[in-house]
Write a structure and sequence with these properties.
The complex is a heterodimer of chains A (229) and B (1202). Chain A has a single domain, classed as outer membrane lipoprotein receptor (LolB), chain A (Clam). In chain A, 29% of the residues lie in helices and 38% in strands. The longest helix of chain A is centred in the first third of the chain and has 38 residues. Chain A is globular and about 55 Å long. In chain A, 32% of the residues are buried. Chain B has 42 helices and 20 strands. Chain B is elongated, with a radius of gyration of 43 Å. Classes of the chains: A alpha+beta (229), B alpha/beta (1202). Chains A and B meet through helix 3 and helix 5 of A and helix 3, helix 7, helix 8 and helix 21 of B.
Amino acid sequence: MRTSESRSLFGVVLLAFLLEPAVLRAADTNGVIEAWLAAQTNFTTWTAEFVQTRRLKALNQPLVSTGHVWFARPNRFRWELGVPAQTIAVRDDQLLQVIYPRLKRVEHYPLDAAQSGPMSEALGLLDAGFPRDRADFDARFRVRSLESVDQAWQIELEPSNASARRVMPTLRVVLAATDFSLLATEMQFLDGSRMRSDYRGAAFNRDLPNDLFRPAIPPDFLISKPLAP
Amino acid sequence: MTRIRRRWAWVLAGLLIVAGLARVRLDTEVLNLLPESVPAVRGLRLYQKHFANSRELILTIRAPGADSAETAARLLGEALRRETNLADRVVWQPPWIEHPEQMAEFIACLWLNQPPEGMARLTDRLAPDRLATVALEARDRLATSLSPTEIARLSYDPFGFTQLAGAATDDAFLNTWQEGFASADGAFRVLFLEAMSEFRNYRECARWLAAVQEAANRVIRSPDWPPDTIVRYTGPPAFVAEISTRMASDMRLTVLITLAVIAALFWWAHRNWRPLCWLVAALLLVMTGALAACGFVFGTLNALSLGFGAILAGLAADYGLVVYEHAAARPNLNPSALRRLLLPSLTWAALTTATAFLMLNFAGLPGLSQLGTLVGAGVLLTPPIMLFLFLPAARRGVERRASGISGSRGSPIDRHLPSGAHPGAALPTGPDQVQRGARDRSGPGHTSDRAQACEMSRPAGNLAGWRIASFLATAIALATLLRCGIRVERGNVALEPRNLHANAALTELRQEMSRYGEPLLLVVSGQDEAEVGRTLRNLETHFERVLDRDVPLGPRVDHEKTPRSAHAASPSHATEERVRAAGKADARAHAVDYSVRLPTTIWPRPDWHDINQAAAIELARRAPAIRGAAHQAGFTPEATALAEQVLAVWSNRASSRTGSWPTNETSRWLLERVSARSADGWLALGALDPTSDSPARRAAELDPGMPGVWLTGWPLLGESLVSHVERRMAWVALGIAAVVTLCLWLAFRRWTEVAIGLGALGFTVLVLQAVMSAAGIAWNLMSLAAVPLLLGAAVDYTIHIQMALRRHRGDLGAVRRITGRALALCAATTIAGFGSNGLSGNPGLASLGLICALGVATACITALFVVPAWWICIGRDEQQGSGDGDSNGPNLDAVGQAALARPSATYGPRVWRLGLRGVRLLPRPACWAIGRLCATAYGAFRPKRLRVIEANLLPIHRSDRVAARVAARRLLANFSSKITDLLRHESGASEGISLSHWSGYEIFQAALERRQGVLLVTPHLGNWEIGGWLLAQRGVRLLVLTQAEPGRGFTELRQQARARWGVETLVIGQDAFAFVEVIKRLQDGAVVALLVDRPPPPTAVTVEFFGRPFQASIAPAELARASGCALVPVYVVADGDAYAAHVLPEILYDRRAIGDREARRRLAEQILRVFEPVVRQHADQWYHFVPLWGEGAPKTRNREIE
């Protein structure tokens, strides 16, 4: 092979190498999203333990908590943060409850009000890893980037809603490359603080009792409805 | 000298006009058109003055999406900030986002104004032994909270400084990133740009706006600018620039259109360009003069008054046309005579029209008041300008055309007339005169003229048909009204300028930022902060009850609020959602249709401030401990920055003793939206936001009715103003109707014609309303002023037409051809003047102009076609030809003759005594002025008496009616001065009455020295009574022969007054012995005075005087024969402010030759005729108020004294 031909070939290969990831990323992003969403349809319930690390700019040291999360299609969840639980967030079809067992206080947020008000960011934080379908996903997020890191897909998202972006400009979802199961979610706040939840011991399609999502409130707990007139 | 004086007068007038024009400023503020007495207006004015920043331009950005809008706002904001010559401040996002550190002072001040319990809780929370616990609790919450908002707050406020009782800072500090600056979807954003300084005038404002737009366009053209993103401009500077520019061009346009129409009409009618040019110049002078008067009186010209020019031109043109018509119709009269002829009619016409416009001052709208005053002032200026400036030019133009110098073609009017004739001149009324007129011209082309001339005499149109048509029109109009009704627009349409870009941008802004419409404003005033604070709390309590809420309201930030009302006050999340939920709960029994926003939480509480300050100072001292506790708990220094700044503010305030208000820029920006300082105290701003598309209650029902609180806003304005104007306009219209009725009565003196006039006005109004109803034209608060204007303008037409019908004795053809054509021209110019305002950008003025134009057109058609039909049917039968027709005197029936043969009822003892008292109180010039006013009024209210005077003067003026009429009015005025001086003389206040000169006294002296008696004879000329006083001053005792005065005690009263000056009175009645006494006294050498004209019947004989039979007194001749006395003619006439006495040569006679009656009659005639030249010279001082000549003269009695 003559030198000039070698150089040309090298250039083509180099160009292909450089181009390939971009082309591949575009195709992979959509493919990964689709695969992830498709994987969502394979289960009706999902539970896992998590370790939540909060690296706040206002604190010198990160805050680490453990907890458990239960999720049932289409949109019910239960987050327990801390052992014993210090904060429990439960959502069923109609209501989002935030329970503070230590303070013996419960806050009720009707879902329609919560979704349009200040609690919308909280909801976004709680169910970011469980988009219902592509339409729901596209309505809530825009994909910034997709990376393959340690046999996992790391999708960087930004909320579509401008006010949500103000609070939480970036959301990262980490999926297992093999089965697109949720490995971690990380929220980044406006000041650069981050909150990451790493999930382990995930289980699918377990039977979850209904009262998991409709907990009985002890009579001595104070129930407030912050959004009520 | 007169010419020099006139030139200086014009120079002075020019200087005054220039000075006045230099003071005129355009006032673009719509609120200045509205009455201060309406609470909504007052409140809105307070809002505009104290809360609406006149330097703040609002830029709106509409983009396809929220990101684009935000990018565009950021690019624009940053670019405009770099334009330091244009912008003092540019805000495109909440200031606390850019300068969060400045919120510390705000929060610190809020704490000081909290209830002391709240500060106590904070103090307790930050107690030294609790600091560590609080910090650890905050850290624990950070670890377990699931709310990103709470996480963000606790990160930078672990000790809860932002947790005030009313949560005023919750959203303001953390949550409301874009509220007040962006719509709900974020695709519409707002940017505020404040100019460096106040604008001196609208031009400077327009230049600044153009510079800002240019700077913005540079950004828009840059590659970074998001596509499909539109920027618009609104706010006070945009409105000022656009409205004032529009006003100036509107004014020019309407005036130019009106002048063009007037010029075209004048050219079509008269084809004479020189008078046309002078007419236009005169109109411009009238408008300029009125505008200069505006500059002196008002200083500013508002949006409604800019239409005055066109209206005034349309009205003033009528006077010019009248002047021209008369100049052409009376070529024999010089300008001075024409002025005398036209001045009364033009003056009265100007007064009635000006009165109608000046009545707009009672309409309740300052904008209309100024318009009415301007037009009224201009109309009053019109007669002198037309008579002194335009009239000479019109005369010259007519003369030129008559002599063929101008070469102007005949007008359409002239081509259809016989030669030498003119519309204003007497026209041939019979076929012979028509033939003669036609033979005077040669050429075949005139045959058609002859035929047309024959046509002129026949009454035009089918009168019965017109009467039927008027009935039909009335029926149709009523049916239309029943079907379509009368629409009154109660909104703000009349106030909102049309097609304004700034207005469109503002409307879009309101729609985007306020979900359910524009909020109502609550303006609260008080002498100090404490009073305002109390009122705010009372309002809160009031609206809690009224709006059916059972929890206390807190301040809130509404996601849909306008940027201007971006209070810093914001609710808790709970309160916010309550509002939303309330707005949607329409099914509730008591729907909450409004939500209230009040700055109660942030308003200073001086009482709490003083209490809390001590705790705040204590807390400030704990700053190191607080910092330490936070550090111990693991917080970084950034986490305690806010706390430390708040504590620093408290510490600084303690040492500097500053007031309750924060002072940094962010705080000021927030507080300017809700608070202001006025000359009288403080103001606060709240709002009532509708929470649905159709609030259950009308806005006006929400007025709390508290002192110092105004519920205001543009939605309220229309309704309250229409009600305000409706009430007043009803009274104004009634007033105008009364004035109109009075004018009609004064003009016609017959109820039939008054009724026809009123009927014509009613018909005009009915047809106009029917046309409006059919066309869907609604009345609004501005166009309601058309009612009095139309009444005032339309009454002129009915008066002109009915007067013309009288003059021409029902010859409708002549009436239409002369007066009708002139009326049509006048109406056309007036319609042009009003109608051109229909093009104005101000909808109120446009609707006023349109309706007035329609009304004038309707009135003109009614006057030309309907009025004659009814007048000829019912008005002509009663006509007695009492107008200024061809009779030599007033055509009176027996009753009228008898009434006029008696002296006026005002000549009596009561009036005399009143006069005697009055002249003692006032100086002579004031007495003269009042006297002349009374004389003018007498002439107006007693026209028949005036016509008697004219008839008496006619022979003296050789049958010149015009001169006689002028002299008659002057006579009345002179008589008032004479009576005034006589009253002063008789009351003893004779100062000021002086003798300018006395001629011929030696004649009297010579006669006196003969000691055979002197009989002084004088006519009713000048002030003959003064003669007795003059003689008394020279030591001559006088005996005056008079008749008995009317009324009880009057004769004695006059006798006593004369006796005061040494003048003896002898009353001659039917008693023959009185003459014996007189003869005896003459024979003793006395001086006796006697009036020789208008004798009592026993002593009256017929002599020739001024070539006519006249009743003179034979008494002087009788006395001469009986006593042989000297007959000396004397008279005393006014000479300026003084009097001149004249003694004429003695009348010599042969005593023997006057033995028979006929000889004595001749002597009486000789005596009287001596005064002919004197009476001719001083005809306007020859005071006779009963008919002297012809049928009306008192008849001579057969019985005579021998």
